[in-house]
Specification:
heterotetramer, A: 276 residues, alpha/beta, TIM Barrel, 8-stranded parallel barrel, 8 strands, B: 420 residues, Rossmann fold, 2 domains, 4-stranded parallel sheet, 42% helix, globular, binds pyridoxal-5'-phosphate
C-alpha cells in the first residue's frame, strides 16, 4: 500500500519488534497488539545472526528469535499469517536479502516479500552506495527502501541517500543509545532541518521510550516516531518473568497507545505544521 | 606498497562498506587518513611507523633457512620469522600502525575486539607504547578460556570489557565493538584485527602487514638471488596471509598458498548452523559480513555459521575480501589442513627446528608436509606467531589423539595433574 | 671480544676450576675448544654462530628509546630488547653458542640443568635447531611448579630428567648434571646456564652474550653519537649482566650497575640456612661453589644458603666470578631491589611502554625508578627477557600486596577462579 | 699417624661413611662397626650442601646428615668422640675447609683437624692446580692430602698431582657409577699401570660392593679398596625400615669383614706382589 501513506493526515507511530521473539506464536500476538494500539506502520525485524547495528536489547531479542527457530521462510510465513492492517517494513541485514532464492542478488527476496505483503525495507548495513541492486528490485515490485540519516551523515552522503530513499527517511536521533533529553531534541531538530526539503516523510527513532518523548520529537517537526527497544524491553521482561502472553500483549498495546497519543499531541504543538 | 587501487573500496565484487550509516563518516574519515598518512606519508607517518616497528617491534624479522625441513622435503624451506615480533605474532604490525594512525588523526581513545586475545594483546601493547587509553571488547566465554591473554591486556593497562550477549565469543565482540564505535566515532578509533571489515580496513591492514613480504622478498633475493617458487601462509581473517603475499602478487611465477583450518571435517551441520572448520575460501560462498562482501561460512538462509578449529585465531566464518578476490582470480590457491595434521606439524616444527609455532602457523606447515611434492624448489613459509599461548590446548588435543610424533608427557602426570 | 686474559682461569682471586678430577679433562678440552673456535674462529665457528644468532635467534635486537620512561625520569632511557630474542630472553645467545660448539667438538649429546626452566627451554630450542639429542636435569619440585617450561622443553624434543634428591630444586639439578657429565664426558657436553662454573665457562658464556653490549654500544653511538652514562642489568648468575657490560668495561666513564634480587629482606636466617634474597654481590662473601671461587650466600660454616626471590631466575646463591671481581675492583656497582619494588616496576614497564618484562628484568627497572636521580643522562637498561612466563607469579604476588599501580583483576575473578 | 701406614703389610680396606648419617649417635656406632670389621683407614665425610662429586646414594646420606644437624663444629666433636684405632681421612668440599676459622684460607681448618686426630684429606672439588694453600697447611701440621686419579686424567695432570699427593692416591675405577665387572678391571689395571712408579699406595674406589669384587681389584694390583655407596646403602635401608641401630651396625661390620677378606684374598693372587 506504500509506506508514505502511513504518514498522511497525522504523525505516524512506527513500532519495531523482532519477528519470532521470543517465539513464533507469541510474537504474532505482540505484533498484532501494536497494531491494535495504534501503529501506523510496523518495522518487523527478520533476525540475522550478526546484527552489528543493534543495541544490546534488540541483539538479545534476535538471539531469542533465532533460538526459537526463526528462519527466512518462517519469517515470510509469519508475515502472511499476521492479521494487521498497516504497512509492514522488513528490517534486516543485507546478507539475508542477498542470499535468498536461487538467483544471485536481492531480487528473489524482494519478490517473495511483495508476495507476502511487505511494503518496504530498512537495511541498516546497506548504505546508499551499495544499494543499487536492492533499489532496482524494489522499484520493480513497487516496494519502498528506507534509509537512515545519522547526526554524523555528511552533506554529500545526504545527497546520495536522497536519490535512493522512498517510503520515509529514518532519522537517527543521536549517536548514543540513551542520554539527556535536550540533546536528543537539538540533534533531532538539526537533522530535520538538514533534510527539510526532502519529499519523503521523516520518522525519528533511537532512544524514544515514552509518550511525552514522542510528543517532543513530533513537535520538533518529525512526521513520525520509530520505537524499538522500549517495546522489546516489555517482551524481554515478560519473557523472563514468565508472564502470560496476553498480559504482555496488553502492556505492548498500552505503551503503543501512549506513544501514538504523544505523537498526536506533538503535532498540535508544532509552530507551523508542514503537512496536513 | 601498491597504491593503484587505493580509492576503490572493492576488490572485484568483494569488499565495499556495508556498515550502519552512523559509521560511514568515520570510515570516510579513516579512508582519507589512510590515503594521506599511509599512502602519502603525510607528516612522516610511515617513517615513524617503520621506525617504531623496528625499535619497538623488532623488525626486520629474519628469513631463516630451515635446515631440517629442507632436508626432509628435499627442497629449500625458508621461514619468515614473524613469531619474533614483539608480542609473539605478526599482529603488532597492524595494531601499531592503527594506533599510531589514530594518534595522527587526533583520536583520543582506542577500542578493539578480540577473540582468542592475540589481536587484543597486540593492541594493548601498541596502545601502552603510544600512551593511548584502550578498551578491548571480549566475549565472556573467551575471557574465561583465554585468561593469560586477558591478563596480558590488563597489565598493559587496557580495559577488558566483557561482552555478555549471545554466546559471548568473537562474533558478539565484533558487533559490540562496532556498536560502541558507532556511539563514539568522534574521538575513538576502532582497531580491527585482520584484513576484514569495511573499506579502508582491508587495504590499510594489508599495507601495515605488507612489510612482511617486502622484507621477505628482499631477503630471499639477497640469500638466493632468486624469487621463491612458493609462499605459504595460514589464513584466518587473512592478515598474515596478505602481509606475506602482498609484494609477491605481481611476481606471477611465485605460487601463493593460503592455508585455512580444515577443522575436524569440511562438511557442515546446517541444522545447528555449525561448520566444524573455518575453510572459508575453500568451502564458503559469497555474502556480506562485518561490513564487507566476501566469502563466508553461512547456511542456505545466509545466517552466519559457527566455525571451528583447534586454533582459535583461524576460527572465523569470514575472510578478507581481497583474498576472496585473489582466489577467484586464480592468483592465490586456497587449501586447508585439518586439526590432526596441524597438531602433527606443530610437534614437527618444534622438534626439528626448535621453533614452537602458534597453532595457526602450524597449519601452514601441515600443508607443506602433506603437499611438498607439489611445491617448487624454494618455499617461503610465514611463521605468523609463536605457540606459547597454545601450550594448554596442545596438551589437551594431543592427549586426546595419541599422535605418534607427540612427546611422552607422562612426566607431567607423574608430578601431579595433567594440565599446565 | 676481550681475549687478553683468555688463558687465565682466574679473575683476580675469583674463578678457577674447582671440579672433580673426572671432569678436568673435559674442562681442559673445552678450554681448548673455546680458544680455537670462539677466540680464533677456527673452521668459521664464530661466523656460523653469529649467522645462526641472526637468522634463528633474531639478532640484532633493537636498542629502543623509551618515550614514557625517559619523560618520567627526565633522562634518556634506552632499552636493549633481549626479550625479543627467540625464546623470549637473552638465554639463547649462550645456549646456541654452546650447543654449536659441542657440535664442532664432535660431541653427540647435550645435557643441561635448569631451575625455573628458562635456560632449559633455550637449550632445548638450540638442540632441536642443531639436531642434537638433549637431556635437561630439573628438580622435581621445579618440574611441578614450572609446568609450561617443562612442556616447552619436551615439545622441542628434549628429555626432562627429574632430580628427586634433596629439595628437588636448582642446586640439586646442578649437582646431578655435573655427576652425569662426569660419567659421560667423552661424548657429552654440559651446557651451563650462566657465567658460572669452572673455567672456561664464565669467559665463554660471557663471550657468547657479549653480542648484547657489542650491539648496544654500536647502536647508542649511532643513535646519539655518544656512549651512555650508565648501563643497568639485573644479575642472577650474571650472564645477561656480563653480556650487557662486556664491551663497556673498557669505557671507564660508563657506570655499570648490577641489580640483584633483594627479595623480602637483606638479613639472613643462619639457623635455617635461608637468605630471603639473592643479593650475592651486595651481601655475600667469598667461597667456592659449583666449580669456581666467587661471592656466595653461605652460613658461617660455609654451607650454601637457600636464596629467595620473587623471580626464579635470580634465585641463585652464587654469582659469576668475573662480576665478583669487577665489583671488588669498583668497576661494577652492585645494587639490589626488593620483591615489592620489582613487582611495581613490572607493572610500570607494562603499562608505560607496552613491554611486559620478565620478573628478573623488572629488577633492573626497579633500580632505575628508585635511583634515577643518581643516574646520568643516557641510561641503557638491558631488557633481559619477557614476562609471559611470570604471569601466574605476578597475579599471585600482586594480589598478596595490593599494589597501587596494579591493574584491577576482578574481571578474572568474576569469570571464575583466580589463577590463570 | 700417617695414612701410608694403613697400607703396610697387607692390602687396605678403606670404607666411607658420611658423619652424622642418619644422626650423630647412630653414625658414631656405624663408623666404629667398620673399624671393628677390619677397616684399615676410614674416609669420614663432612657433609657439604652441594656435593657435586657424589652419586645419588651419598648425596642422600649427606642430606640426612645435614638435616639431623651436622655442622663443622659437630663434625670435629664427632671425630674427637670416635673410638677407633685407625687413621681418619676427612672427605669434604673445599668451601668448608676454606671458610673455617677467623683467618682466610685452609690453615685454621687443618689446624683444628690435626687437633681432633684427623690424618688427611680428600677434597673432590680441589684439583692439584688449586691445592697449593691446603698442601702447605697439611705440611705444616703433618697431615696427608689425597688426590683422585680418574681414567680420563691426562699425563700432564698426573704429573701435577704426583707433586702434591701424599698418604695414598685414590684411583677412580671408572667413569660410570655401576657397570660390567670386566670394564672396571681393565680401566683399573690401566690406571694402576700409569701410576705404578708413584711412591704412595694406590687405593681403588668407585662401585666396589662385594668381597669378590675387592678381591679382583687387589689382585689387579691395588694396594687397597675404597668402598662407600655399598655401606651407605646399608645405613639408608636400615634407616628407612626403622631397624635397630645395633642390627644395622652388625650388617656394616659383616660387609666390612667380607670386603677386607676379599682384599686379602686378592693380595695372594697377585702375579708379583709389589709390596710386602
Ligand atoms: C599467530 C597467528 N597467526 C595467524 C592468525 C590468523 O589471523 P590472520 O589470518 O588475520 O593472519 C592469528 C590470529 O589470531 C594468529 O594469532
Ligand atoms: C629473563 C632473565 N633475565 C635474567 C636472568 C638471570 O640470569 P643471568 O643473571 O645469568 O642473566 C634469567 C634467568 O633465568 C632470566 O630468565
Amino acid at each position: 500500500m506504500g509506506l508514505e501513506a502511513a504518514f498522511t493526515d497525522e504523525p505516524a507511530f512506527v513500532p519495531y519488534l523482532a519477528a519470532g521473539d521470543p517465539n513464533y506464536e507469541d510474537s504474532l500476538a505482540y505484533v498484532e497488539a501494536l497494531a491494535e494500539g495504534g501503529a501506523d506502520a510496523i518495522e518487523l525485524g527478520l533476525p540475522f545472526s550478526e546484527p552489528i547495528a543493534e543495541g544490546t536489547t534488540i541483539q538479545n531479542a534476535i538471539v531469542r528469535a533465532l533460538e526459537s527457530g526463526m528462519t527466512v521462510e518462517r519469517y515470510f510465513d509469519f508475515v502472511s499469517e499476521l492479521d494487521v492492517n498497516v504497512p509492514l517494513v522488513c528490517m534486516t541485514y543485507y546478507n539475508l536479502i542477498y542470499q535468498y532464492g536461487s538467483s544471485e542478488g536481492p531480487r528473489d527476496f524482494v519478490a517473495r516479500s511483495a508476495e507476502v505483503g511487505i511494503d518496504g525495507f530498512v537495511v541498516p548495513d546497506l548504505p546508499a552506495e551499495e544499494a543499487g541492486p536492492l533499489r532496482e528490485a524494489c522499484d520493480e515490485f513497487g516496494l519502498d527502501l528506507v534509509f537512515i540519516v545519522a547526526p554524523t551523515t555528511t552533506p554529500e552522503r545526504l545527497e546520495r541517500m536522497r536519490e535512493h530513499v522512498s517510503g520515509y527517511v529514518y532519522v537517527q536521533a543521536r549517536l548514543g543509545v540513551t542520554g539527556a533529553r535536550d540533546d536528543v531534541d537539538d540533534a533531532t531538530e538539526e537533522s530535520l532541518t538538514r533534510i527539510a526539503d526532502w519529499d519523503v516523510p521523516k520518522a525519528v527513532g533511537f532512544g524514544i521510550k515514552t509518550g511525552e518523548h514522542a510528543e517532543r520529537i513530533v513537535s520538533a517537526g518529525a512526521d513520525g516516531v520509530i520505537v524499538g527497544s522500549a517495546l522489546v524491553d516489555i517482551v524481554a521482561e515478560g519473557y523472563e518473568d514468565g508472564d502470560p502472553t496476553d498480559e504482555i500483549a496488553a502492556r505492548l498495546e498500552a505503551l503503543a497507545r501512549e506513544l501514538k497519543q504523544g505523537a498526536l499531541r506533538g503535532a498540535q504543538e508544532r509552530p507551523q505544521p508542514e503537512r496536513t | 606498497m601498491s597504491t593503484d587501487d587505493a580509492h576503490d573500496p572493492k576488490f572485484g565484487e568483494y569488499g565495499g562498506q556495508y556498515v550502519p550509516e552512523a559509521l560511514m563518516p568515520a570510515i570516510e574519515e579513516l579512508a582519507d587518513a589512510y590515503e594521506r598518512y599511509v599512502l602519502h606519508n603525510e607528516d612522516g607517518f610511515m617513517d615513524e611507523f617503520r621506525s617504531r616497528l623496528a625499535d619497538f617491534g623488532g623488525r626486520p624479522t629474519p628469513l631463516q633457512y630451515a635446515d631440517q625441513l629442507s632436508e626432509r622435503y628435499d627442497t629449500d624451506i625458508y621461514l619468515k620469522r614473524e613469531d619474533l615480533l614483539h608480542g609473539g605474532a605478526h599482529k603488532l604490525n597492524n595494531a601499531l600502525g592503527q594506533v599510531l594512525l589514530a594518534k595522527y588523526m587526533g583520536k583520543e581513545r582506542i577500542i578493539a575486539e578480540t577473540g582468542a586475545g592475540q589481536h587484543g594483546t597486540a593492541t594493548a601493547m601498541a596502545a601502552a607504547h603510544l600512551d593511548m587509553p584502550c578498551e578491548i571488547y571480549m566475549g565472556e566465554t573467551d575471557i574465561a578460556r583465554q585468561r593469560p591473554n586477558v591478563f596480558r591486556m590488563k597489565i598493559n593497562g587496557s580495559e577488558v570489557v566483557p561482552v555478555t550477549v549471545g554466546r559471548g565469543t568473537l562474533k558478539e565482540a565484533i558487533s559490540e565493538t562496532m556498536r560502541e564505535w558507532a556511539t563514539t566515532v568522534e574521538n575513538t578509533h576502532y582497531v580491527i584485527g585482520s584484513v576484514v571489515g569495511p573499506h579502508p580496513f582491508p587495504k590499510m591492514v594489508r599495507d601495515f602487514h605488507a612489510v612482511i613480504s617486502e622484507e621477505a622478498r628482499e631477503q630471499i633475493l639477497e640469500q638466493t638471488g632468486e624469487l621463491p617458487s612458493d609462499v605459504v601462509a595460514c589464513a584466518g581473517g587473512g592478515s598474515n596471509t596478505m602481509g606475506a603475499f602482498a609484494e609477491f602478487i605481481a611476481d606471477a611465477d611465485v605460487a601463493l598458498h593460503a592455508v585455512e583450518a580444515g577443522g575436524s571435517a569440511l562438511t557442515v551441520d546446517e541444522e545447528e548452523g555449525v561448520a566444524p572448520n573455518s575453510a572459508t575460501l575453500s568451502t564458503g560462498d559469497e555474502g556480506v559480513l562485518h561490513g564487507a562482501r566476501t566469502k563466508l561460512l553461512q547456511d542456505s538462509d545466509g545466517q552466519i555459521m559457527e566455525s571451528h578449529s583447534v586454533s582459535a585465531g583461524l576460527d572465523y566464518a569470514g575472510v578478507g575480501p581481497e583474498l576472496a578476490h585473489l582466489v577467484d582470480e586464480g592468483r592465490v590457491t586456497p587449501v586447508n589442513v585439518d586439526d590432526d595434521l596441524a597438531l602433527e606439524a606443530f610437534h614437527r616444527l618444534s622438534q626439528d627446528e626448535g621453533i614452537i609455532p602458534a597453532l595457526e602457523t602450524a597449519h601452514a606447515f601441515g600443508y607443506v608436509e602433506k603437499y611438498h611434492d607439489d611445491l617448487g624448489d624454494s618455499v617461503v613459509v610465514n611463521v605468523s606467531g609463536r605457540g606459547d599461548k597454545d601450550l594448554e590446548t596442545v596438551i589437551e588435543e594431543t592427549t586426546k589423539r595419541d599422535l605418534d610424533i607427540a612427546p611422552d608427557m607422562s612426566i607431567l602426570q607423574q608430578m601431579g595433574g595433567s594440565g599446565l
